[in-house]
Amino acid sequence: MKKQKLVILGGGESGVGTALLGKANGYAVFVSDKGKIKEKYKQVLIHNEIEWEEEQHTEDKIFEADIVMKSPGIPEKVAIVKALIDKGVPVISEIEFACQFTDATIVAITGSNGKTTTSMLTHHVLKQELDVGLAGNIGDSFAKQVLEHNYKNYVLEISSFQLDGCINFKPNIAVITNIVPDHLDRYDYKFDNYIASKFKITQNQTKEDYLIYDADDEVILQYINNNNIQATLLPFSLTKTIENGAYLDQDNIIITIDNNQIIMPTKNIALEGKHNTKNAMAASTVAHLLQIRKQTIRESLENFQGVEHRLENVLKINKVQYINDSKATNVNATYFALDSMESPTVWIVGGVDKGNNYQELYPFINEKVKAIICLGVDNEKLLASFGKMVDVIVETQFMSEAVKIAYKLAEAGDSVLLSPACASFDLFENYEDRGRQFKEAVRNL
């Protein structure tokens, strides 16, 4: 019998993980990357005798595919992907490919913001009592973990791009943290397309599965009310009393699932801010579903260290706190950051604008922001939006300079916040690179 041919577009973490899993399961594998493949991934492919190419797509070889796994970074509008779809070749994501080779319990977490923190927090709680892997948009690829570890449980952080390539993927527990306009450039600038993409997380769920979601999010509520969702719903809320799900009652999170109730005090939760109370609700609800002991959940929430580049306290210099929130790549994430500021703030913002509407930030600018530093190649929209609202607004294209300007502007008791509300690709490799450069510049002051 002829081997099925698996073609992988993109030789990064998810591509190479899929190649290894595909080969182990009897596929003939070919990896093709339009750019350069990193040396560490090249070595893995060579060592495992997997055929690969870089800086080109050889169409003859690609069109021999029975199935194609594309990296989430490649848009569906790319010519080669369109051609494959027109030919009727299934083009799927790594999550879709790998899930068929595991019987593990899967917790899948998506949302515009909070998904990394919620995924890491959920994994942190579960790993105290369960055999659990953390994958998806984070850490080692899911496919590679399925091959090498075969965990009994997985927490997967999943982006809309990964969900776009899912057909049969069916998590036991799905979480949607929130939905706000983001990545609209990939969705024909239609918010509805992006919303539908997020809800693919629950498309194959049955009433034996669970959908945990933010009941304070109008976009999510509207979609659930207008669409037939089969999963058992477990909402969480800061403002409403919830019968089945989680809610906040003064300083306690109350979680009820099938009349089984647990109460978690919020006062010692390591992560501060309203949005983190929500992340803690989502993680605790998952843990309660998977029968983690209440004591374990409580202790885990109290000792969780947080996520790098997300409201990360870097240093205090001359009584000024420097905060790295480079992971805030959209307006809603920056909204949470500014909302949690309790002192006058020098705000570093800017990058590649994804069709941002800055209006929801105006109240915070008036109330908390004393100066704005625009760090981007094109800052016109920022200058137009905020120019009249603060006394000091300056532009730069260098992180070191941005931090030096902030140092001059900030006085004892102030905060300096990097929360860009934009993508990083104009001046940096990615948001991690941007955050690391910020931390380095602060340490060099």
Automatic annotation (TrEMBL):
ATP binds at G111, S112, N113, G114, K115, T116, T117. Belongs to the MurCDEF family. Its EC number is 6.3.2.9. InterPro entries: Mur-like_cat_sf, Mur_ligase_C, Mur_ligase_C_dom_sf, Mur_ligase_cen, MurD. This is UDP-N-acetylmuramoylalanine--D-glutamate ligase. Residues 109-287 form the Mur ligase central domain. Keywords: ATP-binding, Cell cycle, Cell division, Cell shape, Cell wall biogenesis/degradation, Cytoplasm, Ligase, Nucleotide-binding, Peptidoglycan synthesis. It catalyses: UDP-N-acetyl-alpha-D-muramoyl-L-alanine + D-glutamate + ATP = UDP-N-acetyl-alpha-D-muramoyl-L-alanyl-D-glutamate + ADP + phosphate + H(+). SUPFAM superfamilies: MurCD N-terminal domain (SSF51984), MurD-like peptide ligases, catalytic domain (SSF53623), MurD-like peptide ligases, peptide-binding domain (SSF53244). Cell wall formation. Catalyzes the addition of glutamate to the nucleotide precursor UDP-N-acetylmuramoyl-L-alanine (UMA). It is found in: Cytoplasm. It holds the Pfam family Mur_ligase_C. It comes from the Bacteria. The gene is murD. Pathway: Cell wall biogenesis; peptidoglycan biosynthesis. The lineage of its organism: Bacteria, Pseudomonadati, Bacteroidota, Flavobacteriia, Flavobacteriales. Residues 309-422 form the Mur ligase C-terminal domain. GO terms for molecular function: UDP-N-acetylmuramoylalanine-D-glutamate ligase activity. It is an enzyme of class 6 (ligase).
